[in-house]
Amino acid sequence: MTTIILPPRAQWHDRALLKIAALSQKWPLALTASVVGVMECLLNVWQLLQQRDLVAQTLHRRQVWIKQAKSSHSHGVAIVTGGNTGLGFETAKALVEAGFTTVIGKGQEAVDKIEAQTGIKGKLSVMALDLSSQESVKAFVREFKALGHQHLDVLVNNAGMMDIPFGLTKEGYEMQFGVNHLGHYTLTLALLPLINKAPQGRIVVLSSGAMYASTDIRYDLLQSPKGYSRLGHYSYSKLANILFVKALDRRLKQARSKVTVNACHPGACSTDLFRHNPVMNLMMVPVRIVCRSPLVGAMSSIYLALASGLDTISGEYFFDQIPRTPNPVALQEKSQELLWSKSVEFTGVDFKL
């Protein structure tokens, strides 16, 4: 049996995040989210000191999971949102190497790059998808279904926006919440019948440690600039990701579906999430030294998409390939169901297999 060595787990980090979640009732949202970011960078430094061969072990785990998937998904089909860059690029690349016919939402350049790096042709394609438009999401689903795939094995809801100026989606909802949650909510439920037809469909939702900064979601602040906080509203959207996973998991189990849905946190990574904030983007230049590479950050997504032995694991929040305790608010069924009812209200889409 191949030995898998996971990144070192810092109990102090887990306890600190739960403490921050408790303090978030007293602290401003943006401050709390910033403190979480600092904690993530400290964890990265601690892990590198504890495990000097972290990158080598990452590459080893990746190959093990790709090999596992190859043996059980000879004709697998996958979708990765935001697959053109960063974490999504690394996730899409691993799926292609595992033999999956994979679709990403944009980025022909990414297709060319992955084909050049892997030597695998014809497995990756691009279809137009704008998660800030419900009509674009529905058009994407119609176009995907027209391809004639009998099932969808893996859906990775990876795309996201962070720390942006106030803006609204096509339907009039705050952009970070609209893209990070509502767009993926509609995409997931519209594709769910196809995922349910897979031998063992998997849904992976990228969340963030920023969700520990929220005590709730201010639904009354999602349609106007009143009370807008760039990091605070990002925190709302990431808490929504966990609440969605919990609520969807409960519905899948009630329907006796074999589909699993799990959330994961990539950690503090060197990606372009701060591209909309020139000041933060400049500050990230020295900070990138203590940030994870996109490959290391994508490992939990790759794990949940490809690894064997996860057929019955659902409704969990993973960090470094280990289930963790999310923000306690995410464990409240009342909060989960409030998000679900609001999502149905905002999109007109509800659970249906």
UniProtKB/TrEMBL annotation:
Belongs to the short-chain dehydrogenases/reductases (SDR) family. It comes from the Eukaryota. Coiled coil: none annotated. It holds the Pfam family adh_short. PANTHER family: PHOSPHATIDYLINOSITOL-GLYCAN BIOSYNTHESIS CLASS F PROTEIN (PTHR43157:SF31), PHOSPHATIDYLINOSITOL-GLYCAN BIOSYNTHESIS CLASS F PROTEIN-RELATED (PTHR43157). This is Uncharacterized protein. Keywords: Oxidoreductase. One of its GO terms (molecular function) is oxidoreductase activity. InterPro entries: NAD(P)-bd_dom_sf (IPR036291), SDR_fam (IPR002347).
